[in-house]
Amino acid sequence: MLSTVQAKLLIVDDLPENLLALEALIKREDRLVFKALSADEALSLLLQHEFAMAILDVQMPGMNGFELAELMRGTEKTRNIPIVFVSAAGRELNYAFKGYESGAVDFLHKPLDIQAVKSKVNVFVELYRQSKAMKEQVLALEQSRREQEALLQQLQSTQLELEQAVRMRDDFMSIVAHEVRTPLNGLILETQLRKMHLARNNAAAFTPDKMHAMVDRDERQINSLIRLIEDMLDVSRIRTGKLSIRPTHFDLAALVRGLLQNFAQQFEAAEASVSLDAEQPVNGSWDEFRIEQVISNLLTNALRYGAKSPITVKVYSDGDQALVEVQDQGIGISEDNQKRIFQQFERVSVKEAVAGLGLGLFISEQIVAAHGGTITVQSRIGEGALFRVCLPL
Ligand SMILES: Nc1ncnc2c1ncn2[C@@H]1O[C@H](COP(=O)(O)OP(=O)(O)OP(=O)(O)O)[C@@H](O)[C@H]1O
Ligand SMILES: [Mg+2]
């Protein structure tokens, strides 16, 4: 590494023959020798190049070698260049130049001793190479330290993300377990009860009326299990971008009317009244199954969080948009929470008191967005909520 550093040397003397002689002495393949016939010339070279050392003739017309050294000492770029003065005068001159960076000044006497010149130059060039290599190493070290720091920061933020993901997974698992256990508990209790009746030959427990009610209850529990599993599958479809939309032509008003009929029993059970305002057909091309899923979730939410209040559903078109509104007079949602409820697993109003994974609105928004539409909410705490789905016609 050291040998690759090329060293530039500056020699200054007012006599060209002196310069040539000195150059011949110190020249080598890995050195570049610059010659200056005056202090002015030397200064301009000093500003252009980075020199390993300068050899200055002390006696020169105009600015002499000491004055030039004085100037070099006053300039940042040249302050640390080692200087060798060449002088014909006696030894007392040796110390005429004081105050220059210690150790960076030396003297040669005319007539020049070839060995002395060569060895001094060798020493300074070697010093220059070593300090240059050291600087490069320091720079490289600093660079690698910065890289390590950046890497460390990356690691730390990845760790935080991981911890959050693990926490979310654990929360999710416990919610899922709870949600799955509820319908399963219902089913197993029913089964045990029927087994008991059978063991006692209790035919009265299996009259056609009672059988009907049983099958209905079973169906509801099984359907809620299926819905849970479908919701979880939808989330993974959304994550992998595989939620597909299969549009067909249909009337949105008719779809909502049919859905409300399906929900009639649930409305009754929840003691909530519902009114539909859908006079005109609203025909368009959307994925019927998916849109039904969106509106079902809005109706379920209105039932869950509507506090038995009257629910109004409206279907209409406005310009190039089809709109479905579901409004309740229930507990309402604060402005801060309105932003959160469309995210996965976000449940804000009641937490564990009411069933649900906190996935319905997340999935609904993704479905509506996949149709090029929007789903928005208007609400205030205690004043109910209005959810509006806009679909392009
Ligand atoms: N009509 C509403 N009134 C008040 N709060 C609501 C209403 N609809 C939704 N929310 C709040 O938004 C949350 C998220 O709703 P979302 O439908 O995404 O999930 P969920 O109903 O809790 O569970 P899931 O739909 O997965 O069964 C609800 O938990 C509830 O706190
Ligand atoms: Mg819901």
In one word, what is the shape? rod-shaped
Low-pLDDT parts are none
User: Which ligands are bound?
Assistant: adenosine-5'-triphosphate, magnesium ion
Instruction: Quickly name the level 1 CATH class of the largest domain.
Output: Alpha Beta
Topology, element by element:
Elements: E1 7-12, H1 16-26, E2 31-36, H2 39-48, E3 53-57, H3 65-73, E4 83-87, E5 105-109, H4 114-199, H5 208-239, E6 248-251, H6 252-269, E7 274-277, E8 283-286, H7 288-305, E9 311-318, E10 321-328, H8 335-340, H9 360-370, E11 374-379, E12 385-392
Parallel strand pairs: 1-2, 1-3, 3-4, 4-5, 7-9
Antiparallel strand pairs: 6-8, 9-10, 10-12, 11-12
The structure holds adenosine-5'-triphosphate and magnesium ion.
What does this structure look like?
The protein is of the alpha/beta class. It folds into three domains: 2-112, 3-Layer(aba) Sandwich (Rossmann fold), CATH 3.40.50; 161-239, Helix Hairpins (Orthogonal Bundle); 248-392, 2-Layer Sandwich (Heat Shock Protein 90), CATH 3.30.565.10. The protein has helices at 16-26, 39-48, 65-73, 114-199, 208-239, 252-269, 288-305, 335-340, 360-370; strands at residues 7-12, 31-36, 53-57, 83-87, 105-109, 248-251, 274-277, 283-286, 311-318, 321-328, 374-379, 385-392. A five-stranded parallel sheet has the order 2-1-3-4-5, with helices on both faces. A five-stranded mixed sheet has the order 7-9-10-12-11. The longest helix has 86 residues, at 114-199. It is rod-shaped, with a radius of gyration of 45 Å. Bound molecules: adenosine-5'-triphosphate (ATP) and magnesium ion.
